[in-house]
Design a protein that fits this description.
Elements: H1 14-30, E1 35-39, H2 46-61, E2 64-69, H3 72-84, E3 89-92, E4 107-111, H4 112-121, E5 129-135, H5 143-146, E6 153-158, E7 176-179, H6 183-188, E8 194-199, E9 208-209, H7 217-224, H8 227-241, E10 246-250, H9 253-265, E11 270-274, H10 279-291, E12 296-300, E13 314-317, H11 324-332, E14 343-348, H12 352-356, H13 365-370, H14 372-379, H15 386-389, E15 391-392, H16 398-401, H17 405-408, H18 412-421, H19 427-444, H20 448-457, H21 459-472, H22 478-500
Parallel strand pairs: 1-6, 1-7, 2-4, 2-5, 3-4, 5-6, 8-14, 9-15, 10-12, 10-13, 11-12, 13-14
Helix pairs in contact: 1-2, 2-3, 8-9, 18-19, 18-21, 19-21, 19-22, 20-22, 21-22
């Protein structure tokens, strides 16, 4: 039985009612096989909105609705919201192998991996689905479910319409984007708290960029785990957030545990939380955080979605990220409005505000949806040019099959300007880079086909290095970058074939 004590039916705000009508009208006008993406900032009530959409769709069409989430907390939260507005629903978790009396339910909520397993065993596991709603639609894991519901409408909902995988843009699966109220508008209308932003200069030298495009956990732990960064964090808290209920976001568990230790030594009430905690321990920590007025919670990768504690007054970004989505998710945890809370504090210790702009700034989400590569490239070009100071982290195991020291010793920016200063063309830097990659692969390859395997291992490193090259030249477009990376890889394969095929 679902507990609805904390989930009473909510009266829709005027902007929510307007949004619901616009979405339903758009879906109705375009018929089946039309997929719609909806953007609304964290705190705007996405769950309330799509739950009401589910209810009205069921009432109008008679079809059933499937809601996809990526975390069990979000599934339970959605189920309670639906029950509060009298929508009979069932959560499909790992324990649900089959659905008894499916006609008793109008709506199903499922985690994507669980449902994918069930549908692969039986593609008719859920029938008569007319609308699929995808919560946190920027995650790419949901795509695997779409093939089973090609005759249904799909509605994706997200605060940031940017795919978690740049190679799989959202406009591949969604036909159109509807942009909801802006952060600034929600603040001015009294629906969100405003953020007072405090930035502290930090030295990010030593950070490495991983294959997912963000800074790696291991390099972040090294940078943020040292004594000076811990002291800077403590100073920032005492200067800005002292006595506030505070959330600290970290990249790695080691850093977060060190934060807990540092603050405890100063006598502050602090707890650490990460994804390795059991459900029981996590609930206990969150209960403590809720009930303790000046509590500090230091966490890793667990409170960015599905967590709602309006009494948080200070958010500290004790990490750097290259993900605009994560940036907004973290800050959004402090934006919940209360009668005595019209503002919250944001402390940035990762140059994130410099990288992405003030949280309240206008963002052209239509541009992000239609041209995601161009959109992100513009935002990741910052004053300090982080990609030049950050080191690339090779895939695990690469050092076992190749000598990476030669690759790590090659600096594209330095080589480029050395070529220019010597009267050569900038393109000569790319030729030197190719020779560098070739030598490392050739020395390690047993034959041509093994060489191709090693080339595949280095594909992200080649991508990373050529992006540095395009930052050096004065004119570069996405099409030009696509051209040079295709040419680079083709010529590298030809060089390997010419020298390895007969060996």
């Amino acid at each position: 039985m679902i507990d609805t004590e904390l989930y009473q039916a909510k009266i829709l705000y005027p902007f929510q009612e307007k949004t619901i009508n616009a979405i339903l009208e758009k879906i109705t006008a375009n018929g089946k096989n039309f997929n719609l993406l909806f953007q609304l900032p964290t705190g705007g009530g996405k769950t309330v909105i799509f739950s009401e959409i589910a209810k009205r769709h069921i009432e109008k069409s008679g079809d059933k609705v499937l809601i996809l989430t990526h975390r069990i907390e979000l599934s339970v939260q959605t189920s309670k919201q639906l029950a509060a507005i009298d929508v009979k629903n069932k959560v499909i978790n790992s324990e649900v192998k089959e659905i008894e009396n499916p006609d008793d339910y109008q709506c199903f909520i499922a985690m994507v991996e669980t449902l994918n397993n069930r549908l692969n065993d039986d593609e008719n596991f859920l029938e008569n689905i007319g609308l699929v709603i995808v919560d946190e639609a920027h995650y790419n894991s949901f795509r695997k479910i779409f093939q089973f519901y090609q005759n249904a409408n799909i509605l994706g909902v997200t605060a940031t319409p940017l795919s978690s995988n740049k190679a799989l843009p959202l406009n591949d699966n969604y036909d159109e984007l509807i942009v909801g109220e802006s952060i600034k508008s929600l603040i001015e209308s009294g629906y969100l708290s405003d953020a007072e932003t405090y930035t502290y200069d930090v030295n990010l030298h030593g950070l490495k960029i991983g294959t997912n495009g963000d800074f790696t956990v291991s390099s972040s732990d090294v940078v943020y785990g040292n004594y000076f960064m811990q002291e800077k964090l403590l100073f920032a808290y005492e200067e800005v957030g002292l006595g506030d209920k505070t959330l600290i976001f970290n990249s790695g568990i080691d850093t977060s545990m060190r934060v807990e230790e540092t603050f405890k030594k100063r006598g502050y009430k602090i707890r650490h939380l990460d994804s390795t905690f059991s459900d029981k321990d996590r609930k206990e920590v969150l209960r403590w955080f809720k009930e303790t007025p000046d509590a500090i919670l230091t966490s890793v990768g667990i409170l960015t979605t599905g967590f709602d504690e309006p009494t948080v007054n200070t958010i500290i970004l004790n990490r750097a990220t290259r993900s605009l989505t994560l940036y907004h998710q973290m800050i959004g945890r402090g934006s919940r409005k209360l009668p005595n809370k019209s503002q919250f504090k944001l402390i940035d210790l990762g140059n994130n505000v410099r990288r992405f702009g003030i949280w309240q700034d206008f963002i052209n989400w239509q541009d992000a949806f239609k041209f995601p590569d161009r959109f992100m490239e513009a935002r990741l070009t910052e004053v300090e040019d982080i990609e030049f100071v950050a080191k690339f982290e090779f895939p695990r195991g690469a050092a076992d099959v190749m000598k990476l020291e030669k690759l790590e010793g090659f600096n594209m920016k330095e080589v480029y300007y050395d070529c220019i200063d010597s009267g050569l063309k900038g393109k000569d830097a790319m030729n030197r880079s190719m020779e560098n990659h070739y030598e490392v692969i050739y020395d390690a390859a047993e034959d041509y086909f093994h060489g191709l395997e090693l080339l595949d291992v280095l594909k992200d490193h080649i991508d990373h290095r050529l992006k540095h090259y395009t930052k050096c030249i004065t004119k570069s477009t996405p099409n030009y970058y696509k051209y040079i990376i295709e040419t680079y890889n083709r010529q590298l394969r030809q060089k390997l074939r010419a020298n390895l095929e007969d060996e």
